[in-house]
Design goal:
Chains A, B: It holds the Pfam family HGTP_anticodon. Chain A is of the alpha+beta class. The first copy, chain A, has three domains: 46-72 and 107-238 and 409-460, Bira Bifunctional Protein, Domain 2 (BirA Bifunctional Protein, domain 2); 243-389, YbaK/aminoacyl-tRNA synthetase-associated domain (YbaK protein); 478-573, 3-Layer(aba) Sandwich (Rossmann fold), CATH 3.40.50.800. The first copy, chain A, is 28% helix and 28% strand.
Chain lengths: 576, 576
């Protein structure tokens, strides 16, 4: 492509709404433009990279034996009612009515449709297992679209759905997808981890892994072991604390100990204030949080230095919807005290006690009375232990659940997610098959997503320097950037054109900067858009010598034309 | 691909809603399934062909110098208000509101968005001309979706938009698109004509051509000359009649002639009844039709044997919206007579007189009195000739407007459309550039669409026989169908597998029917899905002999393995 013709509007400054570096660079390098909040146009450069990621995904999905099809964006609301997701999805689901007032949704994901397709077309065990995928635009009406392509309202996604005879079959399919995803993200040139995750609103009875690109700006926290391969997102992560506690006696509060007593703690509402005042560590206290869980109130009691993990609480309660902290007025009503003085003693709502608290001896807690706390409180004696569980977030430094290692934390961007769905959709929508012995059985499903447009930006978030993007060769919009220092110099122009042609002939995607601009402008743009191989055709062009520089490295090399062609060939060979 | 694994549900019968042969075949051959009225899922076979058409379109667009980008499906309604199309498009425009009650449309076409993109990014004449295209899912809420992919509510379309400095530039770009389209449809293996067309609701000041696949079930009528290259759709077609008339004196009714008089024609309401009764040809009469044009009524007077062309009338009046026949009560009110007796004499509304009528001598027409007609009516003397034009449909047998030939009619399916838009959108949305001499000028636009999903079905409508589809090699879901007669025969199985591998190695898309089915079932399915090259591996497999048959031909040939590989290679070479 000739750069003079290309719609490639580079900018010195990114607009104010771009908060993170990858978003800024995608705009500055002329890859995307915002049309509305969370809705983007891919300019030619951006679309080239998007299609390269798409191609890698397609190749690896095909290699895994999955079959590509294509479902519609418009989905009849009736299917979502059958699965029960029309309400579960809430306001993120984009809805519309057609001219006959029939209601549709714009698919954010396609479990209902694919299950309907498979139910209609496959009846026998002979046609199973099958794994069907598509690469399609999806819609999600995010409450707060942000970070460019990271959290958009319209985005490109690969979604796959597998149908197996049984759980063992699903395990094999799932493993195949895990491997395919590993190949895909490796080929895209990102550093990532596959982590255990919570299934969330999509449901599912089996396991689930998120593929996380490691990046400081990631919205998700990944917990991983410094010794073994254990990795999970914060919502799901467990530590070795629970295992250690199993050897201890639960409810040791039954030992002989003085009765609890209250003491004045005026205006000491937080654990930090309390610990500071009393001069003891926060881990000697327990804190009691009151949650709204559906229509009920519940209390969660955790050690003073821990944070409640709401997903663990929600899963313990078997809820679909998220829980949230109860309103101030409700807390006051149930504790008869100002907020900050709740405690588990004599509290008239269900009390979920974290496993660590259950194993503690005498503790300090709120007194359910304003400006008062209790001491010498014994778990099991002074409050019930009939609801014990792991209700805390893991912390850096906690022991690993699998080995002697220690847990670390990273920030990550979720770019892929694989689920064992089981029969959630096949039972609701009636996708069953006739087994060898004539019995009807529900198909065992899995689903597997990749946020293709998000990958594009995640790659940038990991690959840049002060001057711009540093594209991995595999998904760069162009492989080679040929830059004649002066287009007015006939020799340079002719050598540049010759190389432009030769590189195309060997299958490279080449951009020729044929603009009549100063060299400084050209190099600045070149660094900004980040094409991996830069060939500068300058004063030595007459001798057949050009300068080669990789965007990812500082060094420049002089090569003759033969050398540079074989150099580019070798580089291309690395991406297959 | 192994057929035993492929989601390829063939059917003996098509569902009742499939009215036309191509729709039936797409369903029976397992290419598509309906999810909702006008909304389809592409099964793997169907999606493969869709993607092959897409690839041809992309190649030819790239070759023409157009640049690919990708715009969003969601478009803010404000842009459609700026262009004025939000009302002009009517109920076909799919609308929705987001969670903040902001209104969006689902793009049926992207003039507003692309004009906004270009306006923001291009300011100088140096970056023009530019032609930008995308391949994207579009939405149109058809009043009556039908014929499968022919008239769906969600469909895949290639849309391109060009921006030129001036009209001469647009002419060049337009010609380039005309040529690219010719290449695309030729490569897709369809018989088509490019015809002059009316610009319709999309607007445009310059020319426009439709690319029509010739087919009996086509909803459009194409008029073309039997001698020269003249071709236009019926809405737009003109005949040589007008040219012939230019040499005649208009308003020859001014010659001396008896005054008109009325005569009784009880219950003779139609031209046919009248002509039969009087024993003269319908061409001696004129008929007068009353139309509702916006808020006004107008009369259109044409020769008795002609049909009014409403598009020509609408364009003469400079209207955006369609005109329609006036209601019975309005006709009665304006003519003071029952419907069927309208005439141009003493009629108190604007009268549009077809050029042919203007050149007639004495005519017979309605008397604006029930059961009465007038004779000896002279155009120009007895009714005004201040609004003369071409208001008739061309008819088969009319003279060609360009040569001595005669006009013929065909039915066609519109698969492509190219427009010279001019400044319609650039002026409304402010897409201007600074010229060499510092002057601001509006960009001159063109737009160019191809209905990719419609092409898939149009190809089938032209390429089938009693047994099923006959795919052109270029867009067939697979090139080669390898069919071992018996999968139980080890030799056949091994030869089939060897060929399967070899064909893949030479770049062919191969389907291997590895199912344990009777040969009759396999051949029936093979004919139905229409893979171009069928290789049957039967009893002579042990001697290295297989049977080769093209789906498009009756003959079968025996070949050894070497011959069959080079045969397939040669076939593939024909599609490049």
């Amino acid at each position: 492509m000739l750069q003079s013709k290309l719609l490639l509007p580079t900018l010195r400054e990114a607009p104010a709404e771009a908060e993170i570096i990858s978003h800024k660079l995608l705009i500055r390098a002329g890859l995307i433009r915002q049309l509305a909040s969370g809705v983007y146009t891919y300019l030619p450069l951006g679309y080239r990279t998007l299609r390269k990621v798409e191609a890698i995904v397609r190749e690896e999905m095909d290699k895994s034996g999955a079959q590509e099809l294509n479902m519609s964006v418009l989905q009849p609301i009736e299917l979502w009612r059958e699965s029960g997701r029309d309400s579960a999805y809430g306001p993120e689901l984009v809805r519309l009515k057609d001219r006959h007032e029939r209601e549709f949704v714009l698919g954010p994901t396609n479990e209902e449709v694919i299950t309907t397709v498979v139910k209609n077309e496959i009846k026998s065990y002979r046609k199973l297992p099958i794994n069907l995928y598509q690469i399609q635009t999806k819609f999600r009406d995010e409450r707060r679209p942000r970070f460019g392509l990271m959290r958009g309202r319209e985005f490109l996604m690969k979604d796959a759905y597998s149908f197996d005879l049984d759980w063992n079959g699903l395990d094999v399919t799932y493993r195949g997808m895990y491997d395919a995803y590993t190949n895909i993200f490796t080929r895209c040139g990102v550093r990532f981890r596959a982590v255990e995750a919570d299934a969330g609103a999509i449901g599912g009875e089996g396991g689930t892994h998120e593929f996380m690109v490691l990046a400081e700006i990631g919205e998700d926290t990944i917990i991983s072991c410094n010794q073994c391969s254990y990795a999970a997102n914060l919502e799901k992560a467990v530590s070795g604390v629970g295992k250690a506690l199993q050897s201890q006696q639960i409810g040791i509060g039954n030992q002989v100990s003085p009765a609890y007593e209250s003491f004045a703690t005026p205006n000491l509402k937080t654990i930090e204030q309390l610990a500071g005042q009393l001069g003891v560590d926060a881990s000697s206290f327990v804190k009691t949080l009151i949650y709204q869980a559906g229509n009920e109130l519940i209390a969660v009691v955790v050690r003073g230095d821990r944070d409640v993990n709401e997903v663990k609480v929600k899963n313990y309660l078997g809820l679909v919807e998220d829980i949230e902290l109860a309103s101030e007025s409700k807390v006051q009503a149930v504790t008869n005290a100002a907020v900050g003085f709740a405690g588990p003693v004599e509290l008239a709502i269900p009390i979920l006690v974290d496993q660590e608290v259950a194993a503690m001896g005498s503790v300090v807690c709120g007194a359910n009375q304003t400006d008062q706390h209790l001491r010498h409180v014994l778990p099991g004696r002074d409050f019930p232990l009939d609801r014990i569980g792991d209700f805390c977030n893991v912390r850096v430094g906690d022991p690993c659940p699998n080995c002697d290692g220690t847990l670390e934390a990273f920030k990550g961007i979720e770019v892929g997610h694989i689920f064992k769905l089981g029969t959630k959709y096949s039972e609701k929508l009636g996708a069953a098959y006739i087994d060898q012995d004539g019995q009807e059985k529900p198909m065992i499903m899995g689903c597997y997503g990749i946020g293709i447009s998000r990958v594009v930006q995640a790659v940038v978030e990991q690959n840049y320097d002060d001057n711009g993007i540093i594209w991995p060769l595999s998904i760069a919009p162009y492989h080679v950037h040929v830059i004649p220092v002066s287009m007015k110099d006939e020799t340079q122009r002719s050598v540049a054109n010759e190389l432009y042609q030769t590189f195309q002939d060997i299958g490279a995607d080449v951009l020729l900067d044929d603009r009549d601009e100063r060299p400084g402008v050209k190099f600045k743009d070149s660094d900004l858009i980040g094409i991996p191989i830069r060939i500068t055709v300058g004063k030595q062009a007459g001798e057949g010598i050009v300068e080669v520089k990789l965007r990812s490295e500082e060094d420049k090399q002089l090569m003759n034309l033969e050398e540079v062609v074989s150099f580019v060939k070798n580089q291309l060979a690395t991406i297959g």
